[in-house]
Please model this.
Amino acid sequence: MEMNSLMSTQLLELQQTVQMSVMQSALNANTSAALELLEDMPQQQAPHPYKGSMIDISV
Model:
């Protein structure tokens, strides 16, 4: 009975380790994809909301 308990505990720890490894790989893949998308975006800047336009401040 003790051997089964020990093996069960070890199997659970192995499953958790594999899950963490798979999750880490998925996270790295998603991060790489997001960085690729950001790098491929056109480098357009939005115009400034008021810079370069005239503002009437007279009362």
The chain has a mean pLDDT of 87. The CA atoms of residues 4 and 10 lie 10 Å apart. The longest helix spans residues 2-40. Helices lie at 2-40.
